Amino acid sequence: MKRKLTVILAVLLTISLTACTNPWAASENTEPEYVPHYTIGGWDDVSGNSGPVIPNIPAFSEEEYDLSDPAPSAGMVRSDLTNEWIFSTAASTRPLAVMVPNNMNSLPHYNLSKAGVLYECNVEYEITRLMPVFDDWTGLERIGNIRSARDYFVNMAMEWDPIFLHIGNIWYADEILSRPEVNNIDGNKKDKAIYRVSTERRDYDQSAYTNGYSVKNVAKDMGYSLEHTNMYTPGHFSFAPKSNPTTLTDVYGNMNASYVSLDVAYPIDTPYFTYNSDDNLYYRYEYGMPHMDGATGEQLSFANIIIQNTYREYRQDGAYLIYRMHDDTSDGYFITRGRAVHITWKKEGTYGVTRYYDDNGDEIILNQGKTMICIVQKGDSVTIQ
Q1: How far apart are the C-alpha atoms of 333 and 306, rounded to whole Å?
Q2: Residue 12 clears pLDDT 90, i.e. is over it
Q3: If residue 307 lies in a helix (H) or strand (E), which one and from where to where?
Q4: How would you classify the pairing of strands 259-261 and 371-377?
Q5: pLDDT, tens digit, 9 for 90 and up, residues 183-223
Q6: In sequence order, what DSSP letters do the residues of 180-241 get, joined into one string?
Q7: What's the CA gap between 285 and 219, in Å, rounded?
Q8: Domain boundaries, the chain
Q9: Residue 63 and residue 84: Cα distance in Å, rounded?
């Protein structure tokens, strides 16, 4: 009896030890087909051959698991515009791009400080227009004010697969705005998308605003998807983790950038930025004053500034402009954390994503936060010091 009990215990011990061993381990007598290990994005083997993909384990990036910047709460994901944490419902909703005037009597603007990306570009008579792109817009109560569209702003907007809001447009933008894939809302045709606050303005043209609720309802009525379409290209920008920010100090040719002025490129609003080393942000000024948000009381500020030199010419009427927004030969500057470097940019086709590269040919890595993109006439000087 004792002998039988000893044999049983030995067998059980052998089974137990076998169960605790690594199931991927090779036996002594056979060469394994592969020896997998986990890498960013899935399972691979040590030889580089593709191994089995384990279900329900999402691909991830190192930035998403930056221990210095954890998600504030469950269900949050990284914004494609800023790399900041937003709720997944906002991330899956298409961005909103809005045409905003920038002449003196359009001030103050409302909720531009909520935009993840803000574009500026000249229109006729050296006046600029702004185009904020929002990814968490459905709850905003007042956005604007709003003016007419230009076709090159549509080119900029379409990189983000947005709902594009404007009030009217110059005739030469009719063609691109009529395309079925350009989901635009014209406040002249859909007056439920806008409202007017005329008591604050010097003229009627500067009095139109919208809110997230109105845009959402009108977009649904027009049959526009509120979720990203198949035209969307995720990963528009590359971002550095908060624990290892981009400083540009190791990039050849980097220069000091505590002050950036575009007064030559934009001679009417004469904007400039000053760098604050305490929070690593660039604060925007125009018309000789801080550029303030009328909704929040904040001065507009940015973690990143991109100066994009772009070929332009006058149209046949001699007043309105056309910008060549797709190119592979133009340059500019990338500015962040008090430094600047020379860059080149490439954009293929009307809806292609604009990519920016340093002089080594590496795509620039932005810092987490908002980005200002200044479309500047090629040849205009920009002060960086």
Answers
A1: 6
A2: no
A3: strand 304-310
A4: unpaired
A5: 999 999 999 999 999 776 668 888 999 999 999 999 999 99
A6: TT--EEETTT-GGG-EE-GGG-SSGGG-EEE-HHHHHHHHHHTT--SB--TT--S--S-B--
A7: 34
A8: 77-221, 255-384
A9: 11
Q: How does the average pLDDT of the chain come out, rounded?
A: 84
Per residue in 76-102, pLDDT (tens digit) is 999 999 999 999 999 999 999 999 999
CA distances, 4 to each of 10, 17, 54, 183 (Å): 10, 20, 43, 80
pLDDT over 70 for what percent of the chain? 82
For strands 312-314 and 272-276, give the pairing.
Answer: unpaired
Is 3.50.90.10 the CATH number for 77-221? yes
Give the span between the Cα atoms of 224 and 365, in whole angstroms. Answer: 33
User: How far is 80 from 119, CA to CA, in rounded Å?
Assistant: 16
pLDDT digits (tens, 9 = 90+) for 213-255: 999 999 999 999 999 999 898 889 999 999 999 999 999 999 9
State pTM to two decimals.
Answer: 0.83
Amino acid at position 249, single letter? T
- Give the torsion through C-alpha atoms of 93, 163, 176, 197, to 10 deg: -170
Strands (E), 47-109: 76-78, 85-87, 96-98, 100-101
Architecture (CATH level 2) of domain 255-384: 3-Layer(bba) Sandwich (3.50)
Q: Are 205 and 194 in contact (CB under 8 A)?
A: no
The C-alpha atoms of residue 275 and residue 277 are separated, in whole angstroms, by 6
Q: Quick one: which H or E segment has residue 166? A: strand 163-166
Q: Encoding tokens for residue 119?
A: 């574009």
Distance CA 288, CA 229 (A): 41
For residue 329, what are its two tokens? Answer: 């030969």
Percentages helix, strand, coil for the chain (3-state, rounded to 5) are 20, 30, 50
Same fold, 77-221 and 255-384: yes
Query: What local confidence, expressed as pLDDT, does residue 95 receive?
Result: 97
Measured CA to CA, the distance from residue 229 to residue 225 in angstroms comes to 7
Q: What percent of the chain is modeled with pLDDT above 90?
A: 72
Among residues 85, 73, 144, 363, the alpha carbon closest in space to that of 246 is found at 363
